[in-house]
Fold these 4 entries.
Entry 1:
Amino acid sequence: MATTTSEQVQTKRSFSSRISNEMFIVLLMFGVLVLLVVTAWIFVPGFAQVQTLVNLVTNNWYIVILGIGVTFLLITKNFDLSVGGVVALTGVLAVYFSQAANVSQNELANGLGFPYPVAVVLALLGAMSIGALNAFFVVRLKVPSIIVTLGTMMVARGIAQVITQGAQRNTSLPQVFGVIGNAAVPGTTVKYSVVIMIVLILVAFILERKTVTGRFTYYIGANSDAARLSGIKVNRHLALLFILSSLLAGITGLLLASEFKAGVSGRATGYEFDALVVSLLGGVSIAGGFGSVLGMLVGALILSTVQSAATGLLLSPDWQFTLKAVAVFLAILAQSYVLKRRKG
């Protein structure tokens, strides 16, 4: 019996050593996701429906897209709290550039009258300029990213408020403006926004795991000085990641503006927190050098499950916010504990 037990322990350790810590955390959080779904299925009224499970994947597509950029930066020990402001700014710019010019006495009904493709490009350039600003202060001036991106979040949202006069722009738009945000895959109810999310996740996964750029991201997060001495252009790499994060936030802003056919300065308030939450839930380490886009996706599904269950239980938004905070706290403690046991 003792021999059998020893062999079982040896087998478990052998299996554990064959998978990386990152994959181990992903599998652990996937197990947590399954447990949450089963628990909600049993105790939450109306949760036991196929459409509910589909909604877990499709409802939070915007947080997943934002989470890609946030995850890459977290791996390098950097934050991006500007993404919510960039979402709002991009949507407002896209609407303002697309609105017909001089068609009303109401200022909010008049825009610049650019063709929609031109409006999209200019709005995305506006988003990327926020990323470039982040990169300048963090990379060149060495200001902590958490401070810089908190400031640029307010700058982006402030510009959006000026353009909308603290309200919104939703008139004099071309018909094409609302297409991409509302169109669905033929024969299904799955919007193209979800398809774009899936494509971006696949591209990010390949970039993370199969390219030199992905490896550089982990090297910088593990030890930026050593990465620099080994020939990696750390400053340029970080600058590109900040611009990428803002570009992804810009894409999100365009899709949301198209879905609602409006540019709203207050849109995406708190999304930066949710993007950070799903990254941490998925095992991305604030200490850098550890985490994955796949883990972030699992974290997003966990957050979606918690939100859906809370809504089904008729909990107020305040309690839902508290639940998210508790979920992140417990996830970080659990992941830290498991990794220490694994190393031991």
Entry 2:
Amino acid sequence: MPDRSALQSEGSAVDAALAELEREHTVKEISGWETGFANFSRALDGIRPGLYLLTGAPAIGKTSFARQLLDQVAFRNNVPGIFFSFAETREELRIRTLARLSGLDQREIRRGSAYLLHWYGVPRLPASEPNNLPPSWDKLKRVAEEAKNWLDGIYLLECGPAITNKQIEAQIAELRRQSQSEQMMIVIDDCQRLNGVNQAWDVRLQIIAEQLQQTALKFNLPVLAVWPDLESGSAAPVQKWAEKTASPDVVLVMERDSTRGEPADELRQRIILHVVKNRGGEKGRLAYDFVPAFATFTETL
């Protein structure tokens, strides 16, 4: 039962609420955090506390988009972030970021990653070997050094098959204590793998979405949950996701765009991000070019 002594009518609270708004002198186009994607920020009114569900076909770029979004939110708003990964290693997630920042192909970075990652937690190679590295490594090291300030606020956690939502909440609480910041962004990739939920696929979605929404409410934080759409090859429209579960505040559905005239190629993919549910802003569709080699999403008109 709630504490009755804490009850306060809206009439008695409105003056304090107006005073708080009056103290905010910054002119804002959006009320939430900037995302680094102008159209995305406007459509969602920025990133705010709540549950964001991102779904799409396997291998369409959901993990790359989620990592880029987390990086951009951390960089632009000076807030920490934590990425829970059930499928990707820390090294693979780091390489995505480094490829995007440097414009170097992920494959080129992987070939020298043992040398590259010595500053990112992996021992350095013998002194003679770096002499054989190509000039592009200077660029890579330079952009990595420039990114360290905001990378200091990003935490990557590899999740084993037994991890539960309570353990995720414990990690969030620990990051709050360690960073001394109440504000942060949370990403949970492949959230369908959370342990303790063995029901049928649709039932599992309902249960996990409800758990993660309660986590978002408990900590008053934005939580981006990535869920694979294993029915994406069917004829069902993307709007079906608006009714699949009631818990998320925002539902985003990613699919390849086959409507534009020019043919796609192996290097650049055309992606549409459908905003099919949005309690705080617009619904609609956002267009992106996705370059898998660089793990980079760019908004298009």
Entry 3:
Amino acid sequence: MGCAHTLSNYASTSVPLAESFKLKVALASSNTDKTISQATDKTAEMKKAGLDDGYDENDEYGDYYDDSAEGEKARIADPIEPFNRAMYHFNDKLYFWALKPVAQGYKFFVPEVARISVRNFFTNLRFPARFVSCVLQGDFNGAAAEAGRFAINTVWGIGGLMDPSSGKELNLQKQDTDLGQTLGVYGVGQGFYIVWPIFGPSTPRDSVTLIGNLFLYPVSYIEPFYVSWCIWAYEEINSTSLRIGDYESLKDAAIDPYVAMRDAYAQYRMNKIKERKLKIEKTVPQGDGGSAVEQKKPIE
């Protein structure tokens, strides 16, 4: 989805480019005639019965939920759908015509172990964004874990090429968070759906990640500017080479790939913010000195 498909490990853009592949988890389904037939029949039955799916096209800033037995489902307003569809198809073509062929050639010549090391290096380099996000969220345990990871991986991991901090002995796991999630934790609504050219799916709230990472990513300060662009492009090629086939699977399994991406993105971001809120509630004591409230709160 950045270049039609990418969600990275991480956070480089509005929604981390290579990170988009995680969206396929939210839409996992088999690409069979039976699946399509069942989905079509269900939609027809709902329309015939006059059932409302909980989505209001007139609400530009709403999250919509389905409290059915299948679990909470998120929806997102899409008032600029024609523009978004045009950008989706642009990114889709960019992926199949440019990024995928280059990534496949790169994959052929570079062993997987080397490509994983490169991914680890860039993940370590993106430490500032994750650290600042944890601090702003009041997740000081997460911030400490990120600081520890950066120090250990930089020194003992040979500049971040290896990830010894995630081993059983230390178990310092990467905090999968960003500035968009930080705003969500504080109750800022996601707004409407946006598909940026090259960068992929986002919202006004999550676009803050794109701007924030411009200042928090060390590569952004390399001169001349086109060198930093080349490094960013290499990072995306390397990340894509480790995920070839994921975007294709999601696209092939969807009746309407654009709608599938949009709904999966809204669900993914809602779940990530919910996880961050619950984590903070469990680790940050309340004002009365008691333990954090365990009850789930609605995500705005």
Entry 4:
Amino acid sequence: MVSHTHHGASESFWVSSALMFATFLYVRASLGVRSQNHGKLVGWRAGSFLLGVLSIWIATASPVAPLDHELLTAHMVQHLLLMTLAPPLILLGMPRKPLAHRWLLRLARLVTHPALCWFAAAGTLVVWHIPSVFMLGLRSQMWHGTEQASFLAAGLLFWSPVVRRSPSNRKWPESSILLYLFLATLPCDILSGFLVFCDRVVYPVFLSSPRSFGLSALEDQQCAGALMWTCVTIVYFIAGAVFTARLLSPHQSSNRSEELAIPQFDSRPIAVPRTNTHRREAV
């Protein structure tokens, strides 16, 4: 198994540099949006994006990132940061601009289709936790980076129908997002339940790892499964609760109607009483 001590410094440097460059581009674009909006900039969007970038850095380039080779719990923390927490934060922070080119619009409709997004996230989760594939990510630095990148990409795909109303899912009712989130918990529950209740160590490589924090390999596996079970349930429940509250809200702002492409149902013309112009002038 390749140790992080040989490649960790260079990998952390390049990942940190890429994240800093992405943050620079975001700040530059945000300043342009601010100038176009006469100095107005939504601060929470910038904060959300920066928190998402920070989550990626913690998972991939921070001093605690190499612990994923010693603890399955640390690996699960990386998985949760890259797939469950960072993607919605980044998507919430991105500026909302309509796609100008028709081919970009078609590509967005294809890539952000809810079914494709769901299967991409579920498939990435299941495949990378197959013991043989899991070991491949531990033994090869290249495959380890591929694993982390696929977690982030699958997370961005999964959260795109939830966070923003893409052209491909406008024909779907908004309430279908609740079913989408519920179905997404099933693969996570099955995997986490298997890790928690299995009476043997699924990934034998951790049997020879240093016993950090006083956990045995089986206890580490149970802790990782419980962490995944709890965090995914809480995050998806919060997302579902926010979405439900927005659906049940009697007041729909014009921004929400424009963003989600929801037609205004109360569009009947309002009869305005005519006033006598001459009489008003006389008064």
